[in-house]
Amino acid sequence: MSSALETPAVSATTPAITAAGDVERSSRRVLAEAEQLGIPWTRILLEEIQAERTLRSYLGELDCPWSLREALWVLPHSLLHSWRVRLRIHRLSLESLATWASEARQELRGLADYLSNRARETPAELVRARHLLFAYRRILALMQARRAAERVIGFRGQRIEKVCRKTGCSPEDARWAVERAASLDRVPLLEDCVRRVREDGFDIPAASTDFESLRLLRKSVKRMFPRGARREAE
What count of other Cβ atoms lies within 10 Å of the Cβ of residue 19? Predict the structure, then answer.
């Protein structure tokens, strides 16, 4: 199976870039050509950044294997905005040509069925339900990190390390929690976490307040995954 951290191969025709100045000049040339061709590179980059943030917010630093199905649950409406997903699809397509690669063909078949509304194992309703479940668990995890950040003491780096150790969260989430705990902008904990998860790209029910949004989200999760089924859904 493909490596989790997948980096696009460099074409043989791509000129070598050996200095920071060369990188900057090359970037300018690329953007200028994109504008000349009418490619909406600003919108594409913003979509890529949002998709990457959302993937990392739930799948971590992407240093562990992940499947298209997992990416679909996290990015149900913007799956193809991610370069990682597109590259994985490309590599699975190449793997599927081999007679032994039944797993690759199965992943691609599941994606095709979902995109064409013919999915049986992963219908749109289930994808939506899992996405809401992930959003809910993400909010709870950030709330735990924020509470821990309020209690720990020490220098900034020490506090981040302590929050990671106490909650098991990622260094990025611990850093956010410590910075928000020390911020002069004292946004209430619940509202702060809901807004952060929205910024991560998760689809949370709209309401008049963030508290009400969380209540609606929790209600939806409990309805979709009753009687302990939330643990089985992961």
Answer: 8
Are 201 and 50 in contact by the 8 Å Cβ rule? The answer is yes
Neighbour tally for 52: CB within 10 Å: 16
Residue with tokens 């992943």: 107
Alpha-carbon span 56 to 124, nearest angstrom: 22
Nearest CA-CA partner of 31 in 21, 19, 44: 44
For helices 124-151 and 41-59, the axis angle rounded to 10 degrees is: 70
Q: What is the pTM of this model?
A: 0.55
Please give the Cα distance from 34 to 78 (Å, whole number).
22
Q: Distance between CA 182 and CA 179 in Å, rounded?
A: 5
66-99 residue pLDDT tens? 788 778 878 877 888 899 889 888 888 888 887 6
